[in-house]
Every structure is written in structure tokens, then in C-alpha cells.
Write a structure and sequence with these properties.
The complex is a heterodimer. Chain A is an all-beta fold. Chain A is built from no helices and eleven strands. Classes of the chains: A mainly beta, B mainly beta. At the A-B interface, strand 4, strand 5 and strand 10 of A face strand 5, strand 9 and strand 10 of B.
């Protein structure tokens, strides 16, 4: 099956700086890569996703890049704000219906 | 739509007792997933259903765990007997099967504590 690795496990940045979280996957058949944000006491919520036919996608301060050859994808958050503090999960979906999640990155934005 | 609804939000039970977690997926979604989240292992897929049929239960830890989906709007995850190591947050998620590359929507989770 698919194996998704995520780094770093924790990340602290100053407010206004950028944050980058990286993930790798193993199954070249994976074709959909969502990113989830989980706030304390809540379930994960989708913040951005990318499909395998696209190399980059941007939504305001959030962007995701995908390198299919290297099998890695990254989340970029610019101009970070305290409310960005949360745990972020990457995931990969292959031809089946399962989502395979990374182990999560705890992001802290320091005011 | 109210989203994926899980109950209870919190459950504290004694070791050996039976625990039943409940999930109502988003109306019209025909894939349902049960995940377990712990600090050590992150988000683990336990089982998922397509059109009420269990497709992959290889993530179910052992025979003490069972899941059912008697209809399109309801699923249960049962642990019998429960053990302290089952303590975790259990999430239910749903998505539309025909939308091949779309997100799974998560519920708020059930925090289970087995003492």
C-alpha cells in the first residue's frame, strides 16, 4: 500500500514568516493529494488539495506544489498568522478509495 | 448539511466494557471511513465502506473491534471488550464515491478513554 511520510513533526515560525511542510509518498499511482488542518478538539478539515495533473495550486496565502517524478508534495503558508497554528496533515489517495495520511506537523505561529 | 455527525463526543468507560461509537455521514455520500488518532500512530484507517459494504477492514486492530453500516445514513464502531490501549480519538469521515478525486469530510471525533 501507500506510505506517506511528513516532515517536520513540529514547526515554529514568527508571525509574518513563511511555513513549509513536506511530504513524500511511495505509490506512483496516487493521484490526489489533500492537505488537512486540525485545530484542537476538532476533526481535520481540508484546506487545499492538488491532483496529479497539476504541479502547483494556490489559494490566497496557501499553496501546494507537487513533484510527481520525485513523489513529493509540499504545503506553503505565507504571511503566517497566529490562527494558522494547528496540526497539518498531508494525505495521498491512490486508485482505491483509501486516504493515507502523514503523521502530522504541529505548527506554532509566534505573535 | 450539518456535516458528518459523531456521537458521543466523549466516552469514558471501564476496561472490559462494551463501547459503541456512532456516525451519520453526509447525506448522499456513499463512502464512509473510520479512523483512529493517537499521538504515537497518527491517523490510522480502521475500515471503510462503499455503498454500505465493508471494503477494507485490514486496519481493524483485532477481533475486539467490529464495524457495521446497516444503511446509508448510519454506521457504528464497536469495541468489546474495551482495553486501556484503545484510548484514542476516533473519527468518522465520508465522501462521494463517484467523485474520484475529492476530499473526505471528517466528523468532530469521539474521544474515548478506557480506564
Amino acid at each position: 500500500g501507500e506510505n506517506v511520510e511528513q516532515h517536520p513533526s513540529t514547526l515554529s515560525v514568527q508571525e509574518g514568516d513563511s511555513a513549509v511542510i513536506k511530504c513524500t509518498y511511495s505509490d506512483s499511482a496516487s493521484n490526489y493529494f489533500p492537505w488537512y488542518k486540525q485545530e484542537l478538539g476538532k476533526g481535520p478539515q481540508l484546506i487545499i488539495d492538488i491532483r496529479s495533473n497539476v504541479g502547483e495550486k494556490k489559494d490566497q496565502r496557501i499553496a501546494v506544489t507537487l513533484n510527481k517524478t520525485a513523489k513529493h508534495f509540499s504545503l506553503h503558508i505565507t504571511e503566517t498568522q497566529p490562527e494558522d497554528s494547528a496540526v497539518y496533515f498531508c494525505a495521498a489517495k491512490s486508485g482505491g478509495n483509501q486516504f493515507y495520511f502523514g503523521t502530522g506537523t504541529s505548527l506554532t505561529v509566534i505573535p | 448539511d450539518a456535516g458528518v455527525i459523531q456521537s458521543p463526543r466523549h466516552e469514558v468507560t471501564e476496561m472490559g466494557q462494551e463501547v459503541t461509537l456512532r456516525c451519520k455521514p453526509i447525506s448522499g455520500h456513499n463512502s464512509l471511513f473510520w479512523y483512529r488518532q493517537t499521538m504515537m500512530r497518527g491517523l490510522e484507517l480502521l475500515i471503510y465502506f462503499n455503498n454500505n459494504v465493508p471494503i477494507d477492514d485490514s486496519g481493524m486492530p483485532e477481533d475486539r473491534f467490529s464495524a457495521k453500516m446497516p444503511n446509508a445514513s448510519f454506521s457504528t464502531l464497536k469495541i468489546q471488550p474495551s482495553e486501556p490501549r484503545d484510548s484514542a480519538v476516533y473519527f468518522c469521515a465520508s465522501r462521494g464515491l463517484l467523485s474520484m478525486n475529492t476530499e473526505a469530510f471528517f466528523g468532530q471525533g469521539t474521544r474515548l478513554t478506557v480506564v
